[in-house]
Amino acid sequence: MPDEPILKVDGVSKHFKVGGRTLRAVERVSFDLGAGETLGIVGESGSGKSTLGRLVLRLLEADEGRVVFQGEDLAKLASNELRSRRRDMQIIFQDPLASLNPRMTVGAAIEDAMVVQKIGRSASERRHRTEGLLERVGLQPSAVDAYPFELSGGQQQRVGIARALSLGPKLVVCDEPLSALDVSVQVQIIQLLQELQRELGITYLFISHNLGVVQLISDTVVVLYLGEVVEQAGADELFERPQHPYTQALMRSVLKVPEELEKRAPLVALAGEMPSPLSPPSGCPYHPRCPLAMDRCKEEKPLLRTVSEGHMAACHKAGEAVTMGSAPAVLVTPSELAAS
Amino acid sequence: MAVVSATVGPGVRVPRRHAQWWLAWRRYKRNKLAVAGAACVAVYLVLGLIGPWVAPQNYAQANFLYANHPPSLRFPFGTDGLGHDMLSQVLWSMRNAIEITFGASLLSFAIGVTLGLWGGLRGGVADMVIMRLVDFMFAIPQFFLSLFLVVAMGRTVWPILLAIGIPGWAQYARLVRGLVLGMRNGEMVEAARAFGASRAHIARRYLLPNVSNSMLVQIAFGIPVDLTVMAGLSVVGLGLRPPLPSFGNMIAQAGANVLGYPWLMYFPAAIFAVILLSFLFVADGLQEALNPRAEDGGRRARRFGFGARGRLF
Amino acid sequence: MADELLSVEDLHVEFERGDSKVYAVNGASFSVGPGETLGIVGESGSGKSVSVLSVMGLLRGSGQVTGGTAMFMGKDLLKLRRRQLEDIRGRDIGMIFQDPMSSLNPTMRIGDQIMEGMLSHQYTSRKGAFNRTLQLLDEVGIPEGKARFRSYPHEFSGGMRQRVMIAMAVACEPQLLIADEPTTALDVTVQTQILVLLRQLQLKGRMGIILITHDFGVATNVCDRIIVMYAGKVMESAPLVDFLARPAHPYTVGLKGSVIEVGTKAHQLRAIPGMATALTEPPRACPFAERCQLAADRCLEELPPLRPLGLGHYVACHRAEEVLAAAGTTVGAQVGGPVGGQVGGQVGGQVAQGVTARA
Ligand SMILES: Nc1ncnc2c1ncn2[C@@H]1O[C@H](COP(=O)(O)OP(=O)(O)OP(=O)(O)O)[C@@H](O)[C@H]1O
Ligand SMILES: Nc1ncnc2c1ncn2[C@@H]1O[C@H](COP(=O)(O)OP(=O)(O)OP(=O)(O)O)[C@@H](O)[C@H]1O
Ligand code: SF4
Ligand SMILES: [Mg+2]
Ligand SMILES: [Mg+2]
C-alpha cells in the first residue's frame, strides 16, 4: 500500500567482542517496511532479534549497513537531531522491570519521556495523558503513584507499553511485549496495537516467541538464525508453507493445548548441538542440526533466494517439496512421567 | 470506559513521594541493634556539637592541684596527670572527631563520586587512569598514606582532616564506578536514551538517584574507618597535637598509666568503642534498609567484621 | 496429603501502600508432591508471584504474610528464621524469578554468579563448582561455556539470562523448583529443550516443580495439576485431565477461550470483558462476578468457597455445575463474552485520540 517505505534496513551487521573473540550477533540483515505495516521477527533465543531492534533504532551502532527511517540515514544524524527524532521511534523492552528506573514512580517514568520530548504544556496535562494511557493498557490510572517493584510482571510490562505509546511514535519496536501478560490481556493489547495501527498508521517491528501472535499481527515475518535471515515471507504463507528446515522445526516445537489428556504429544527436543555465534558453522549455519543436510550444505552457504512470489529462504533444498523430517534427540513421554 | 482494563495495581493511590524512605525505615526498624546504634550516634552528634559549651572546663585548662584525681562528683571521669578534666576532654574530643571524620568523609565522597561517575560514564582512557589510581590506593593501606600526609602537612585540625579525607576517595570512586558501569549498559539507561534523554539528564535523573543509597551506606561505613585512622595516628604520635584533645591522644596517654590511673583508659576507650560500634550497626542497618538486594554483601561484611568494607590495614 | 513436598494452606498476603492496603493473596492453598508438577495460571496481578515469593520469605516492599502455613519437609516456612530460610533457599528449594535481569548482579560475571550458590551452600568444591557451571551452561543451551563464563549479564540476550537463572536454580539439585515464568523469553525449540531438562531432573531426583506461566501450551504439556488464580484466590484446581476436558469455572473457560494459537484469526480473538475488582479490600463476594456472564444475585453476595467437584477437582464458583453442563455446547461464546472486534473498536478509538493529541 505505501509508495515509499518508512523504514529501510540495508545489510546491517553487528559483531561483539567476547573474551577476545568475535560474536556474530546480526549478519547482513535487510528489509523494507511500509508505514502501517508490521514485520514479525522470530528466531532462536540469542539469534540477534533484540540486537536488530536496537540497531534499527540506533541504540547500538551498526558495524556495517544502513538504516533509513523516514528518508533519513540515522547514522548520519548528529546526536541532538537523533534525540529529537526519537519521538517518532520507540521501543517496548523485553525485560520491563530492568527498563524502568526503580527510583521513579510509574507516573514519573512516563512523564519523563514527555518532558524530554517537550510534549504537553503543563505537568497536569502530562499527568492527565499518563492516566489516560495507563487506563488504555488496562491499569488503573491510580497506578501513577506505584513504584515499579510494587507491580506484578505483567503490570510492569504494560507500563513499558504505555511509555512507548506516550510519545505518539510512528515506529515501535515491540520486543516481546506480551510475554508477561495473561492470555486475556494479551488479546486486549493486541487489539489496542492493531487499532492504533489502523488509526494512525503506526509501523511495528514485532519480536516474539509466541508464533500464534506473530502470525496474527504481522504482514511479513522474518526468521533469524545465528544473526542471519534464513526465511522471509508473508505471515500466512510462512506459517502454511515453511520452507527452511529451521522454520519447520520451530513450528513443530509449538506446544499446543491438547483437547484431552490422551492427545498430549511427547516433548521432543531438537537434535544436535546448540549453535554458537562465537564459532558459527561453515556453510549453512543450520547444517549441524538439519535433518536434510547434505554435503553441499557443509561447504556452501545458501543465499537467501526467492522460492515463490514474496517468499524467500536461505536453504539449498528450499522449494523442493521437503518433508518435515526430524531426528528427535531426547524424548520424554507423558507415560514416562506417570511411571515415576 | 475503556474495556481494556483487566487487573490493576489495586488501590495504587496515595501521593507517595516518600514511600521509599518510609519502606526503608520499616526495614531499618526491624534491626534492633541498628536502632540502638542510631540513638547512640544521635547522642554523640548532639554532645559533640554542644559539647564545647556544656563542658565544665576548657580542654586546655589544667588544674595542677587536682592532677590524677579519680572520678568524683566534681570530675565525673576523673582528671589526668596535668589535671585536665576528662569529661571536658571527652566532650572536646567528640567535637574534634566529628569535625575531622565528617569533613574527611565528605571530602573522600566528593572526590570519589566525581571521579567514579566520570570514569564510569566516559570509559576509555580517563576511566583506565582512574582505575589504576584506585588500584594503587588500594594497594597501600589508607593508614600509611594518612601518616605520610600528616608528616607533610602538620598536626592541627585541617591538615589531619585532609590527611584522612584525601586517601579515602578510592572506596567511593570504585563503588560509584561499579554501579554506574552496571547501569550504563543496562536497559534502564537504554530506555532513557530511547526517548531522547541527554547524557546529563540520564546522569541526574537515572544514575545519581540509584547510587545515592549505596553512597549513604558507604559513608556510614567510612566514618568509623576514619575514626580509627584518626585514633591510630595519635597512637603512633602523629595525631592532633596536644593539647588538642582526641580519643587517640587520651587512649595513648592512658595506656602508659593504665595500672595507676585506670579511669584515664576506661572512660575514653569505652566511649570510643561505643561510638565505633554504633556507626557500624547503623551502617549495617542502612545497608539492609536501603539496599535490600545487596543483602548478601551486607551479610558477608558482617561476618568478616568491617575489615571487608573499610580496608584499614 | 501426607506425602506432599510443599503444602500451602490458606495463605494471606497484604501490602501497605500509604494509607490503603492491597490484599494481594486472599486464602490461597496449593500443594505439590515429589516428582509432581503444579501449574499456576491466572490473571496478571492475581498474586501468583507474591504467593510463591512469600513462601520463600522474599516479599518485596511492605509485604506481610497475615495468615496461613507453608509446610516443607515438616517445617512451616512462614515461621522459620531468616537464617534457616536462607539455608533452604537455593539448596532445597530452587527459584527461577520472573525478572531475570533484576535478579542477576549486573557487575558480576555470569559464571561466578552460578558458582556462588553452590559455594555458599557448600555443595561442592571450587573446582567442582566450576565444572558443574560449565556443564549447566551446556545443558541449558549456552554453548562455549568457557568463553561465556566471563560475560556480564548485559552481554546476554533475554533468553540467555533466563537460562542462566535456570542453571542457578537447579545447580544444587533442589527437591523443589519454583519457576516463575521460566520460558517467556525462549523460542519454542529452546523452551522444549529446557522443559525436557527439567523433566529429566525430575525423573532423576523426584524434584517437585511449581510452574507459573501464562503459556497454556506449556502448562498443559508438562503439568500434572493446574490451579487458576484470580484476585488472590484459587478459582479452580484441577488435575490436567479435568482442566483440559472439564473446566468448571467461568474464568477458566474464558481464559482458555482467549488463548492464541498458530492459525488463530483476528475475528476469533476473545478477551474477557470488564475490569478486575480492586484489591483494596478482601473479597466478600465472587471476585469474578462483575465480569462473569453467568453471575447471579448470589454471586454478588456470597463468597464461593473452593469446593470439590470431582476426584481432586476443586472449584470456587456457585454455578460450576451449570458451567460443566454448558460445556460441549458453546461455552466459549457464552461465557467468554463478546467477540474481540467490538472490544478493540471501542478501546482503540480512545487511544488513537490520546496519541494523536500531541502538543
Ligand atoms: N552488549 C553485548 N556484548 C556482547 N554480546 C552481546 C551483547 N548484546 C548481545 N550480545 C550477544 O548477541 C547475541 C544476540 O543477542 P540478542 O539479545 O539480540 O538475542 P535475541 O534474539 O533477542 O534473544 P532472546 O530471544 O533470548 O532475547 C547473543 O549471543 C548475545 O550474547
Ligand atoms: N511490593 C508491593 N507493594 C504493593 N503491592 C504489590 C507489591 N508487590 C505486588 N503487589 C501487588 O500484588 C498483586 C499481585 O502481584 P503478583 O506479582 O503476585 O502478580 P502475578 O500474579 O505474579 O502477576 P503477573 O502474571 O503479571 O506476574 C498485584 O496487584 C501487585 O500490584
Ligand atoms: S460464582 Fe458466580 S460470578 Fe463467580 S464465577 Fe461462578 S457464576 Fe460467575
Ligand atoms: Mg531479546
Ligand atoms: Mg508474576
Features:
heterotrimer, A: 340 residues, alpha/beta, Rossmann fold, four-stranded antiparallel beta sheet, 12 helices, 14 strands, disordered C terminus, B: 313 residues, mainly alpha, MetI-like fold, disordered N terminus, binds adenosine-5'-triphosphate, binds iron/sulfur cluster, binds magnesium ion
Detailed description of the structure:
The complex is a heterotrimer of chains A (340), B (313) and C (359). Chain A has 340 residues and is of the alpha/beta class. Chain A has a single domain, classed as 3-Layer(aba) Sandwich (Rossmann fold), CATH 3.40.50.300. Chain A has helices at 49-56, 79-85, 96-99, 106-116, 123-136, 153-166, 183-200, 211-217, 235-240, 245-253, 295-299, 334-339, and strands at 7-18, 21-33, 38-43, 64-69, 72-73, 89-92, 171-175, 203-207, 220-225, 228-234, 267-268, 305-308, 311-313, 331-332. In chain A, the strands form 3 sheets. Chain A has an 8-stranded mixed sheet, sandwiched between helices. In chain A, strands 2-1-4-5 form a 4-stranded antiparallel sheet. A two-stranded antiparallel ribbon of chain A has the order 11-14. The radius of gyration of chain A is 21 Å and the shape is globular. Residues 325-331 and 333-340 of chain A have low confidence and may be disordered. Chain B has a domain at 44-56 and 92-291: MetI-like (MetI-like fold, Orthogonal Bundle), CATH 1.10.3720. Helix content of chain B is 69%, strand content 0%. Chain B has 12 helices and no strands. Chain B has helices at 19-30, 32-54, 86-122, 124-139, 142-153, 157-165, 169-184, 187-194, 199-235, 247-256, 263-290, 295-303. Mean pLDDT of chain B is 78; it is low at 1-15 and 294-313. Chain C is an alpha/beta fold and 359 residues long. Chain C has 2 domains: 1-92 and 175-194 and 206-264 and 281-359, Rossmann fold (3-Layer(aba) Sandwich), CATH 3.40.50; 99-173, no CATH class. Helices cover 38% and strands 21% of the residues of chain C. Chain C has 15 helices and 12 strands. Chain C has helices at residues 48-55, 82-88, 100-103, 110-120, 126-139, 145-148, 158-170, 188-205, 216-222, 240-245, 250-258, 297-301, 320-326, 331-335, 340-356; strands spanning 6-17, 20-32, 37-42, 64-72, 75-76, 93-96, 176-180, 208-212, 225-230, 233-239, 307-310, 313-315. The termini of chain C are far apart. Chains A and C meet through helix 1, helix 3, helix 5, helix 6 and helix 7 of A and helix 1, helix 3, helix 7, helix 8 and helix 9 of C.
